[in-house]
Amino acid sequence: MTDASLHSQAHENEASFGDYFALLKPRVMSLVVFTAMVGLLAAPGGIHPFIAFCAILFIAVGGGASGALNMWYDADIDRIMTRTKSRPIPSGKVSANDAFAIGITLSVFSVVMLALATNWVAGALLAFTIFFYVVIYTMWLKRWTPQNIVIGGAAGAFPPMIGWAAVTGDIALESVLMFTLTFMWTPPHFWALTLFMKSDYKDAGVPMLNVTHGRPSTRNHILVYTLLLAAVAIGIAFTAIGGWIYLTTAVILNTIFVIGAIGIWRRTDEDCEADDHKKEKRFFFFSLTYLFLSFGAILAEAALAPYGLGGW
């Protein structure tokens, strides 16, 4: 190999800013930012706009730190899975040691800064969220039990609680309900993904439900959790963060979601292969819209409440 080709190969493997940013899982971070912002704005009491901005920024950094540590630990299975093999570490753009250093540094920074900017309850919740996602979910549950997504989903459900605590300094029923909404949404969302990811998780040795119990069982679980989610989601309408706007949105969204889950439940493996998992893919992508609009309705209630237009 010539010097020119060696230089070219080294240049191709050189990490860019985008590669380091990808370590933070920006798509996941966007969900963290949005739900945390809703929790912050729906909380009773006031918060200075600059402090609110700082709180959301530090929560986002904490979420990104979790993503970097997740990629550091999961680099071995990320190299196997089609969906993840182009991530910065498996592709050779960023070293595992660099990812670990970035994750740890950002974790400490985000927790300390959030606590100083708001209060230690919010800081402690962020610290626990990072610990839960990295240690409890990534290092333990993900490779040990098919219930990994069910229990591990708590990590992605904490941001609205953190946002709420940043304002109030405590945990309330309403913040727990926002947590529960995301917590119950996570299993059907990810199980739908596993149904059309084919052998990715099996090849990587990850005991997802479709791998350990088969696709028919996964479809059953999707339906059950979707029905439970609908009950939680509609119930929120009758709390302090709910109202007629949220109720209308929740009824429409959950009707569509339940119909989609029933459609998946009725399918066979032959049906799925025949249309390339069309219904499963539609259900998965709608689930993203579902969560965004659900929290958007909570945000609308909070925004209109001062004008007497939200709530009951």
From TrEMBL:
Belongs to the UbiA prenyltransferase family. Protoheme IX farnesyltransferase subfamily. Carbon 2 of the heme B porphyrin ring is defined according to the Fischer nomenclature. Pathway: Porphyrin-containing compound metabolism; heme O biosynthesis; heme O from protoheme: step 1/1. The chain crosses the membrane at residues 28-44, 50-73, 94-114, 120-141, 148-167, 179-197, 218-238, 244-265, 285-309. It comes from Cognatishimia activa. Its EC number is 2.5.1.141. GO terms for biological process: heme O biosynthetic process. InterPro entries: Protohaem_IX_farnesylTrfase, UbiA_prenyltransferase, UbiA_prenylTrfase_CS, UbiA_sf. The gene is ctaB. This is Protoheme IX farnesyltransferase. GO terms for cellular component: plasma membrane. NCBIfam families: cyoE_ctaB, PRK04375.1-2. It comes from the Bacteria. The lineage of its organism: Bacteria, Pseudomonadati, Pseudomonadota, Alphaproteobacteria, Rhodobacterales. Keywords: Cell membrane, Heme biosynthesis, Membrane, Transferase, Transmembrane, Transmembrane helix. It is an enzyme of class 2 (transferase). It catalyses: heme b + (2E,6E)-farnesyl diphosphate + H2O = Fe(II)-heme o + diphosphate. Pfam families: UbiA. One of its GO terms (molecular function) is protoheme IX farnesyltransferase activity. It is found in: Cell membrane. Interacts with CtaA. Converts heme B (protoheme IX) to heme O by substitution of the vinyl group on carbon 2 of heme B porphyrin ring with a hydroxyethyl farnesyl side group.
